[in-house]
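Assemble and predict.
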Amino acid sequence: MPDVQSTVVEFVNKLRKRKIEGSQATAKCTVELLRSVISHQRVPHANQAAALIDAVKAVGEQLVAANPVELAVGNVVRRVLHIIREEDLSLTTAAMGGLDLLDASDDDDVDNCKGIGYPAMSAAVVAAAARSTLRPPSLQTLLEGTPESATVPYTSSSGADSESKSKSADKSSLTRKLKHDVIEGVNQLIHEIAGCHEQIAEQAIEHIHQNEVILTLGSSRTVLEFMCAAKEKKRSFRVFVAEGAPRYQGHLLAKELVARGLQTTVITDSAVFAMISRVNMVIIGAHAVMANGGVIGPVGVNMAALAAQKHAVPFVVLAGSHKLCPLYPHNPEVLLNELRSPSELLDFGEFSDCLDFGAGSGSIQVVNPTFDYVPPNLVSLFITDTGGHNPSYMYRLIADYYSADDLVM
Amino acid sequence: MHPAVYKVGLQYLSGDISGGNARCIAMLQAFQEVVKDYSTPPEKTLNRNMAAKISSYVSFLRDCRPLSVSMENAIRFVKNRIAKLPITLSESEAKAALKSDIARFINEKIIGADTVIVKHAVTKIRDGDVLLTYGSPTAVEMVLLHAHELGKKFRVLVVDSRPKLQGQLLLRRLIKRGINCAYTHINAISYIMHQVTKVFLGASSVFSNGTVYSRVGTACVAMVATAFRVPVLVCCEAYKFHERVLLDYSICSSNELGDPNAISKVHGREDINYFDGLTNNANLKFLNLMYDATPSDYISMIITDYGMVPPTSVPVIVRECQKEHNCFESPKIVI
């Protein structure tokens, strides 16, 4: 336990100092950390899932607080919580399936009140589980009222322990099985995060056609892999890269594209509107995708999206599923943005005479945001590792990946 | 080659003189020197010979740097005046008339126009305004300074872009005069636009379909301002208007291209050197556009010396200007 705690503290420090770059790397490290937290967590016999959930939530809150702007951290924590709840539910239904059979064989034991109580319990349990996994509630679950969480089966199963030795054997194997299943699910999640680029790049050939001109901003590895996949399939096309001052990430992307043999032209950010009429498609990589289909991207994408809308150019956003955030953006420019150092814009040495707030001299303020928000009506298509989607569909994917109980952490 | 013209050409080449008005005034003052030192060779008429000389100087200036629309209009005016000189005038009288015409053009069409524009535009600035401007337009700078002298309380947001970073010059001048400013780069305009109450832009030229031709990036600023419902006001002297029309916003047929190395190298940031050794790669190109065209639906109003007009009234003003040129008589010299 203590060394897990120290790794958590170390990771929190890395996040706070922004030492980890990129959502994919951050997500992967976060999941691996949570995996070690789960495997080291001692779970009691009863309320296993609750114990795991509490442990993961405690660590998750620290991580999110360290870097609130890196939404991938919160996304991945919620994914892990969802995995725990889902595995718990599937084990419960399997256990109930097993216990129902035993019930059928013990038909003679009418005095067993637990046996009588079971059918009602199972319905309540199903209702609870259904609510927690955001499935649409059926009439039965609505009429049952609000039962306790999915920990109910364990109290009943612990009560039934006295009944037969076989049941207790099932229960202890259940203990180990939950953790095992959760770790397996988490491993799958890691695999998914690591492989998102390939999944997205596979769809490149459907969207990039021969002799097309593509505009891109920022430096996203997803976009790079996407374009290289199209090039592998012998599509020849040209790429305009906006340089992305003041971080100049466009320079980085252009260098990579040229190294892979793509025809690249570097333009200044101010020329985006001028060039958009000559472009067939705009492709960008998102930093995060919000629940309403809005996109948080590198600064300058809103300008490109507006220009693309004016000229009816498709605006395509590439995002791995770990970037899908179940939160709605309220005032995203302020709350989900980070301001960087003014020295990237103004050289302090050159402007030292203006920075002296003497009499008669005006004050100077420098604004240097990192991210930009694009509303969903400007996005034509999202390409994720599960395929292509409309912005209006993104909220539905949240139901697949996240549980309603975990949205507020 | 007249030394004054040569000097102006070199100043254009090095970028010492930039901005439509400055370039035009410098060129016209050089032409005044040319007229002063001119003497008609024997067997030649003054009209044709001087026009030919002016044309040769113009092609030299064009080699140094492509002409702006304001310069083209001024050249057309000068040639027009040369052609209209009455034959009866002696050489000294003709030279004096020409010099005074050029001086009148500068004073009325450029300097005088700027005064009128400033007078109109300050009425649009109110206390508590947050004004956004892009680059370093001379007309807008005069408006802001005058409004500050009148005691209006406002803030200015200067938006800048690579590679010229002209906004820094404007920023410095405004700060020195005591105006509170904020500074940002063009990518961040979506972030700050919700604070802005008005956008003031300059123009190199305005075409007859209302399209504004100006520094690259102006179209982006106007577009984002329109998306956030912020009024966009363009300050432009009437002599810069042109009867051409323009649909293509990248103006690929005649856009001026700047130095590609200005993009690959970032001045002052030696750590940004990703392109070292790659400049000869056939796959890599740099495109450094100087100008772009802003569609007229992004412009709320154009402030000129003829008044404050919507972009749809530009062809009307062009016609008025042309009529004025046709009856722009030189003053009668009474002997």
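Chain B touches chain A through 60 residues (CB under 8 Å).
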